[in-house]
Amino acid sequence: MVGTGAVSRSDVVAVARAGAHVALTTQAEAAVAAARAHIDVLAAGGGGVYGVSTGFGALATRSIPPGDRTRLQQSLIRSHAAGNGPRVEDEVVRAMMLLRLSTLASGHSGVRPSTVAAYAALLNSGLVPVVHEYGSLGCSGDLAPLSHCALALIGEGTVIDAGSERPTAEALADHGLEPVVLAEKEGLALINGTDGMLGMLVLALADLEALLDVADLAAAMSVEGQLGTDRTFAADLMALRPHPGQATSASNLRRFLAGSPIMASHRVGDGVVQDAYSLRCSPQVHGSVRDAIGYATVVAERELASAIDNPSVLDDGRVESHGNFHGAPVAHVLDFLAIGIADLAGISERRTDRFLDVSRSRGLPPFLADDPGIDSGLMIAQYTQAGICSTLKRLAVPASVDTIPSSAMQEDHVSMGWHAARKLRTAVDGLARVLAIEILTAARGIELRVPLVPGPATAAAIAVLREEVPGPGPDRFLAPDIEATYRLVTSGRLVAAAKEKS
Fold this sequence. Notes:
By secondary structure, the chain is mainly alpha-helical.
């Protein structure tokens, strides 16, 4: 249900990825009707009200007579639907539409109840407006992406219907939907929000929360396979530096390593004074990213509780212009997360590399090869991992500092939040692939420790992996093994198996 308050993060994921349907609460319907009554009064008056009886942006000085106001709103949508480049993923478009619907339902946008109902029906139809990669500057919201969604509402442009692109007018007719003829304020209300960048933030948070547990499992497997120690993860040591994320990651490492015969085999007298930083400092690095996710979640939930539009209709009937549409709060945390991902992937790559270097792997064959010299083992898997890490470092360069003026200097400082969100999506996928290669490598390293065997948790994860990927042996076509491990990482099956046995 979409009401006058916040939609939840889980609601966004369910609508975006699982196709969940939406419905308006009676409270939302009443709030929308009340706000529209205020707009109708202003539209009937003689004064200039931005978005109701004036032009837009740098053209706001022109007063628009009543007979031209429908054309004004239609022209706004058509001109602002100026996106270009590859098509944006369906889940992003659906998330964006749900979040725009949430603002419309808040009773602060002044659209007609029929328009809100039509937007919900479009979302429920399964039709997905074609939105393009380029066009948003993240100020006045994600104008171009939201305009492509609004274009579908008025029966223009193209949509994806059951996987195929087709003209919107035809698709609406086939689904029993009528195009909307926009009234005063409605065009602006449909496009003036941070919904694209926020939708991508919410989806990224869902993925990252799962990937952080994968990172802890991968680190545990690396510590075990490289004959490291778990003493450095002790709770009393972690309490000396009480960051919550660090404590959580250390707890996961202890849990995943508990009862390991490999760990027990060298607990006393192995001659190693300290493990390398990439092993020993895993909770500190992983934990810092956990804490960054925690802060980003706070920002996302505040934004989910917001009604982003301009101008906004207040409860007392005033219609006020403001700057709440600026994407800076969201853009900053999107960039923050990309920085954390690059560091998290970097420490994963370093743990992987230690397995492959005979001078540091503590008795394992070079590159974990079956017949070194004939076989190259996992040498080039690490190259792939390193290449992804290099990409992630470039993606960590903030987009939100790269403002560029627009609209004849009226919009002279923009957030670039859409760009920050787009690169974060790439970064999240890259992180999953880096962790997959570490798990693939660590599993082979652990298995090469025979007759020693791993602990229950890591053994369970390896058993799931071996359902899809063969164990150590002569060289074979490696790319399918990496891809299969990536699928297991993103499905959550590896972590679920490890947690069940820990």
